[in-house]
Design brief:
The chain is built from eight helices and 26 strands. The chain has helices at 3-8, 12-24, 159-167, 205-216, 230-241, 261-267, 303-321, 369-373; strands at 32-36, 49-50, 60-61, 65-68, 74-80, 94-98, 110-113, 117-119, 124-127, 137-138, 149-151, 172-176, 180-186, 190-191, 201-202, 219-226, 246-250, 271-275, 279-280, 286-289, 295-299, 330-333, 345-353, 356-359, 376-380, 390-394. The strands form seven sheets. A six-stranded mixed sheet has the order 7-4-6-5-9-8, with no helix packed on it. Strand 8 (117-119) and strand 9 form a beta hairpin. The longest helix has 19 residues, at 303-321. It is elongated, with a radius of gyration of 30 Å. The protein binds ligand LQZAQKY5 and molybdate ion. Molybdate ion is lined by residues 280-284, 300, 302, 305, 365.
Length: 397
């Protein structure tokens, strides 16, 4: 590799920042939509989730037992079951049996759980130990006040957030529309089904990209294969760019005689955000901004290289388009030493063991077995990393 070739490549951290910034300024700006809570997981909040009322909305018992007022022993009245709206108030020296979740009667100062007291045959309740004021009571508003923000906008909705939104009284949430992405799979040799004949290759991207894009928060709206021809590549790009703010291409990103991505993108007025990243596998990856503000991410055709690029550059790009902050790479411990004598960062599919990350057996750029077995992709810095070292890591797609 020559010094000049290296100088043109963008560092991985810078490429992620550039992808995020490009996503932030991509056009058209995405709209927002209301979705029912059951469809909300995985989407990104366009407005915060706030409490619609006190959370919880009324004071209740946290245990099955007795609501008590003042000091014991207490005279027992009628029981309060969950669902009763306004139980009779308690005055000091009185108590009533109460179920978990039932409204706390006015005047009750605590709940005594049933294993800490007993009722005698004459209708008196006795405590085994002193009952602390407020014991086993869930107070109205102890989790949130009305209108208090619970989850900020830009957050990706998890099932736990769905549950919190329901608890806070919401039936639906307002989310950012998913960026629609079109996939163009380039290459004459690529076939769509079965075992390929010699010289042909089974297309691995078309079946996998919709799910991979969905995990990033985008929606694969169209997919098509495109032959190795500059005019055909330009026409396909133009057609997809007319309706999609994001186009992914696979293959054709290098400098071979049948590689037309770069020339097609430049001929259509595309401006390179980056052209080549210090990354192995995956160094030929490119990102272009088109004249109307759409983005084209060109993934290298070698299967592991393409998916590695999508895993390291796709999240900041799509997060930017969704108006979200970029999630940083996390750090994980390597179980074994990993060499990296060549320039740039090396990305290795790894499994997580008791002692840390262990690279899988299949690391070739055209291989997929290692990626399919991987829990995580380890990012090895130039010079390598020793056993026990903390390295950057990213989720595989
Ligand atoms: N002289 C050089 N040649 C290459 C270099 C280099 O630095 N100097 N880099 C190599 C690297 S690294 C990669 S990665 C590839 C990237 O090439 P392209 O993005 O142009 O991809 P293609 O040449 O079209 O294909 C490469 C490889 O991948 C297979 N492929 C393509 N599409 C698919 C698909 N949909 N499903 C499965 N496999 C696919 C294709 O058949 C080739 O085997 O360039 C190197 N060359
Ligand atoms: O990106 Mo290539 O190995 O680095 O396949």
């Amino acid at each position: 590799m020559t010094e000049s070739a290296l100088a043109q490549r963008t560092g991985l951290a810078e490429a992620r920042d550039l992808a995020h910034a490009a996503g932030m300024t991509a056009r058209p700006v995405l709209g927002v939509e209301r979705v029912p809570l059951t469809d909300a997981a995985g989407r990104v909040l366009a407005t915060p989730v706030s409490a619609r009322a006190h959370l919880p909305s009324f004071s209740s018992s946290a245990m099955d037992g007795w609501a008590v007022s003042g000091c014991g022993p207490w005279r027992l009245g009628d029981a309060v079951l969950a669902g009763a709206a306004t139980p009779a108030p308690l005055t000091p020296g009185n108590a009533c049996a109460i179920a978990t979740g039932a409204v706390l009667p006015a005047g009750a100062h605590a709940v005594m759980r049933h294993e800490r007291g007993w009722a005698d045959d004459d209708g008196w309740l006795h405590a085994q130990e002193q009952v602390r004021i407020g014991a086993d009571v869930r107070y109205a508003g102890e989790e949130a006040s009305p209108n208090e923000e619970l989850v900020p906008c830009g957050t990706r909705i998890t099932p736990s957030i769905v549950a919190l939104a329901a608890a806070a009284g919401h039936d639906e949430v307002i989310v950012t529309c998913r960026p629609g992405a079109a996939a163009l799979v380039l290459g004459d040799e690529v076939v769509a089904a079965g075992v390929p004949a010699p010289g042909r290759v089974r297309d691995v991207f078309t079946p996998a990209l919709p799910a991979a894009l969905a995990r990033l928060g985008a929606e694969c709206v169209r997919r098509r294969r495109v032959g190795d021809d500059l005019a055909v590549t330009m026409a396909a790009l133009e057609e997809e760019l007319a309706t999609s703010p994001l186009v992914l291409t696979t293959g054709g990103s290098s400098h071979g005689p049948a590689d037309h991505s770069r020339a097609a993108l430049e001929a259509l007025g595309g401006e390179a955000v980056f052209d080549g990243v210090e990354l192995r596998p995956g160094h030929p990856v490119m990102l272009h901004r088109m004249p109307q503000g759409q983005l084209v991410l060109s993934l290298p055709g070698n299967p592991l290289a393409g998916f590695v690029c999508l895993a390291v550059l796709g999240p900041p790009l799509v997060d930017g388009m969704l108006g979200r902050r970029m999630t940083g790479l996390r750090r994980e411990i390597l179980a074994v030493a990993v060499a990296n004598p060549r320039p740039g960062r090396r990305v290795l599919p790894c499994v997580r063991g008791d002692d840390g990350l262990m690279p899988t057996a299949w690391q070739g750029s055209a291989m997929l077995r290692g990626l399919a077995a991987a829990d995580v992709l380890a990012v090895i810095p130039p010079g390598g990393a020793s056993a026990g070292a903390a390295v950057e890591a990213v989720e595989p797609v």
